[in-house]
Hints:
Keywords: Membrane, Transmembrane, Transmembrane helix. The chain is mainly α.
Amino acid sequence: MAGFAMAFATGAPRTLLRGSLISTVWGVGLLAEAVIRVPLVHLLPVDVAVGVTEVLFAGTFVLLIAWNGRREARARRGRPRRGSAPSPTGGTAG
Length: 94
């Protein structure tokens, strides 16, 4: 717990926000995939549903991984997100 408090006190809130955003996007993406998958399984014949849901699974992960990689690459470069204003310290707000 002391490590968490120290990290938070030394500027880690931005890192915690990044982690929260990434977790939220992945959670929403995987929940959306599940919501789409359920009716497909019930409406399609089994052999077709297996193929379609495999493509859905792969597509969901490819999109989420691509989003995550792009976001992390932008964060490493220090590039501001669209619509974010520069902060007084030279970084970006948010």
